[in-house]
What does this fold into?
Amino acid sequence: MIEPILLEDITGETHMNRDLDIIMRRIQILFKRMNQTLYRIEVVNDKFDEEFNFFFHIQPKNRRIKSVPLHAVKKYDLEYLEEIINLIKKQTNLSIEFIGFEDLHWQSNHRMIQH
It folds into this structure.
């Protein structure tokens, strides 16, 4: 089971607390640990609305993917996104896929975001 996120464990500003809390609470609700089911998080760079959209993908074996919107992060800043991603990775072992981040790098280590 995914451990509940505690706001006092999160460093940063109020927006990050709210954004991360919403994302993690929705993941906890959707992640059922069903046999023969793939789960992953998708992060989409919405360049037009200048926001990052989070989705939760659920795919039972031999069935279509169900994509559930988790949250739209309005603060359009890669350092902010990187902080949220790092905190999500601390809470869950789910795979994270990035869409629309071509030629963009993380600020901390200069690695490509989307491979």
The chain has two helices and four strands. The beta strands are 37-46, 51-60, 66-73, 95-99. The first strand starts at residue 37 and ends at 46. Residues 43 and 54 are 5 Å apart (CA to CA).
